[in-house]
Amino acid sequence: MSPSFGRGAMTNSWSDLKNAEVFLIAGSNCAENHPIAMKWINRAKENGAKIIVVDPRFTRTASKADIFAQIRPGTDIAYLGAIINYIIEQKLYDQKYVLNYTNALLKVSTDYKLEDGLFSGYDAKTRKYGTASWGYQLGPDKKPLKAESIEDPDSVFSKLKAHYSRYTFDTAEKISGIPAAKIKEIADVFCKGKPASILYALGMTQHTTGVQGIRAYAIIQLLLGNIGKAGGGINALRGEPNVQGSTDMANLVSNLPGYLPHPINTDKTLRDYLVRNGSFFEKHIVAQLKAWFGENATKDNDYGFSLLPKTNPAVNATMVKLFEMMNKEQFKLLFNVGSNSLVSIPDRQLVRSALTKLDMLVVSDLFEIETAQFWREPGVNPADIKTEVIMFPAAFVYEKAGSMSNSSRWIQWKDAALEPLGESLPDLDMLDHLFKKIRKLYAGSTDVKDAPILKARWDYGEHTSALKVLQELSGYDETTGKLLPTIGDYLKAPIGTASTGCWIYAGVTGNGNLAARRNNADPSGLGLFKDWSFAWPGNVRILYNRASCDEAGQPVDAKRKLIWWDEAAKVWAGNDGGDLVDKTKGPDTPEGKLSFRMNPEGVGRLFAATYMSGLPAEAPADGLPAIGIRPAGICVDGPLPEFYEPTESPTTNILHPEVSISPCALVVSTQIGKSDKFPHVLTTYGVVEHFCAGGITRNIPWLNEIMPEPFAEISKNLAAKIKVVEGDMVEVSSARGKITVRALVTDRLQSYKVNGKDTETIGMPWSWGFASLSPGPSTNEITIAALDPGAGTPEYKVCLVDIRRAN
Ligand SMILES: Nc1nc2c(c(=O)[nH]1)N[C@H]1C(S)=C(S)[C@@H](COP(=O)(O)OP(=O)(O)OC[C@H]3O[C@@H](n4cnc5c(=O)[nH]c(N)nc54)[C@H](O)[C@@H]3O)O[C@H]1N2
Ligand SMILES: Nc1nc2c(c(=O)[nH]1)N[C@H]1C(S)=C(S)[C@@H](COP(=O)(O)OP(=O)(O)OC[C@H]3O[C@@H](n4cnc5c(=O)[nH]c(N)nc54)[C@H](O)[C@@H]3O)O[C@H]1N2
Ligand SMILES: [Mo]
Fold first, then answer.
1. So what's the pLDDT on residue 31?
2. Which ligand 1 atom lies nearest to the CA of residue 76?
3. pLDDT band at 642; cut points 50, 70, 90
4. Hey, which of 198, 653, 654, 798 would disulfide with 73, CB 3.0 to 4.6 Å?
5. Residue 677 maps to which CATH number?
6. What global pTM score does this model have?
């Protein structure tokens, strides 16, 4: 959502959850998937906090809830929109916060509109939006015009009010299946408790409107003044061990490490890149180029900018798209590290076919997972497969040193506890061996496309040191070769004299390895633990914490003081590190007022407008395009969250039947089902006993014993209708395929009404495949490959199916 911070991380932290007065847990089953979250939630509950859970199923998390609402999968924006409407109508918002810390007063372009489910700027041919009309009205100084009051019809606040006035509790009930009175109860309880925390994970993100759902959370939390506060925030409970670290390190197609925008094919020079992305990124991309290319990155050669690979934004090769390209024979080699795509990718026939198109597949994993054995899946004749498959046995987490970053943005160091088993190696050593061998093969080449490999700085030692890698991320003074002590030293260094491999990690190893700190003192009692490991950026534990203070820089919540302006010492002091541009700039200075310093407006964004700050009033005399400072992160599918039906849905969108599903959704599956043939909604989820695609856990006998096989969980109503009892085998089919599993008949799923029509949700775990000690059918045989247009996340949480007794 933003080109800088917060691409899915907690604004707060695990241990901060204990400070909340109320929780909305919607789209997360943390009791089963994130038990550490539950530990801190339970502490808050002991202190009287209220828990609201919204889920299509009654989960173990729901069993702890004061309010539980069963929702039709994929309809959260409908009830969240109704809550936004209620907050505005009943004036439940935090007036001061909204005025001072959000863009409520800024005037929106008069060209902006939403009509029949389409925002202005839609191009039906490309199914994409032109976003020019989503901007602000700008003054002659190129800054957004500010309205006198939020009543001004052009203000962001008025646009928000008009947009959500259509979302009544009754409309939300018709769409989501949650009774109107229950939605009102959720709104009342959530808005009354301050601070209030929102937790989410896959139940919100795995939709074609995933990003917009999280935007709806942001709007609610900004209106209520809950961001930047202890016990508040929006907390993305991230999944895979170190998924936070891997996205920090650019395991995302549109980013370089530290969430720097990835250069694209039209960026011929560093200047072109800065015209698109703003001067804010100059220091960071140059520091990264220095880290990657060392002495081969100089001012004279544009710091080696031409050595960086460029992406084609029209391709946007997120995971599913990548397999689509592979299936069109656009790749010869796949290096598959720590992922079991043949089980985890939706509509998995695409993966099955794509892998056969490769010349070579290298799999690095602990076990010979399904992906590595695709050539001997039942039904496949190995003689037909031309792909050569090579297995690299990988060392496990306890067998290697390194840092892992958790959802709280804490970078935590660990040492190796065991020697790697057999011939297995840490992935870092594998990469190091490979890189050195490849560089040897390329030696002497004058081909420009080989230059990045030949010019890279690669010095992690004879026996690779993970600490050296973390030090490279932390950063060096390139003039002395010494580590830069802190992020402040990095920021002060003139451009071209400092390197960091990932600027948000700057300082992590500057004064010793701070990631290895294990001091669990917590003097404030707020769970900040600031001497335990290191949180990016700059050890700030709660992002946007300037917003926890009033205009005078004093904490608004006396019980939960994060930072404050110390007038005598003329400095921001506090229990937490200040999320501030400059700690010596007081609350009445322009810098000291910025509550959301990473946004170009400096405030939280109720309306995700297009905007570049810092553009000069006059065009530059040299005729070159001007360089601004910082662009706003936008959502490609609209500046305000709007409800769209999932790609496969049992009903049409009652808000705008002509534009029923997201007009921008990227639908990759070729077979799309309709509700006449496939009347039920399927949702997929994880189970405690297995981990993701099950590569590890299905090889652990005692886990297999307690969770031996996949199942389809159905309501008692549905069971009676299809004449099935618990334990019977059922065939679940979608437009893409069918699988046979055991029926699990429970009260955890209930029949419900959608727009007057009886509807059923079927729940299925997805952790099985044909290999391992305990094989079973893969649920992704039937799921749909339809992607969120911004994030590329597949709509794993909703598709249409039919179910019947097998034989
Ligand atoms: N034991 C165990 N722990 C895990 C994992 C595991 O496989 N096993 N996986 C790890 C990974 S990689 C991840 S990403 C996380 C995932 O953590 P979670 O997101 O908690 O995992 P899920 O069970 O997929 O989905 C969460 C809940 O969302 C609900 N849901 C489905 N659709 C909707 C919807 O439209 N709206 C709402 N409000 N809720 C919906 C589901 O019923 C489910 O209870 O867990 C991590 N932890
Ligand atoms: N239907 C459906 N499908 C889903 C989801 C869903 O909710 N529903 N959830 C999605 C989500 S959130 C995720 S994250 C993906 C996960 O999908 P994948 O990433 O494909 O699945 P994992 O099982 O997590 O694969 C991780 C592999 O890494 C291996 N491994 C562990 N440690 C190491 C190591 O140190 N080095 C190496 N080289 N290998 C290692 C493990 O043995 C395992 O096989 O699945 C997605 N698929
Ligand atoms: Mo995940």
1. 97
2. 36
3. very high
4. 798
5. 2.40.40.20
6. 0.97
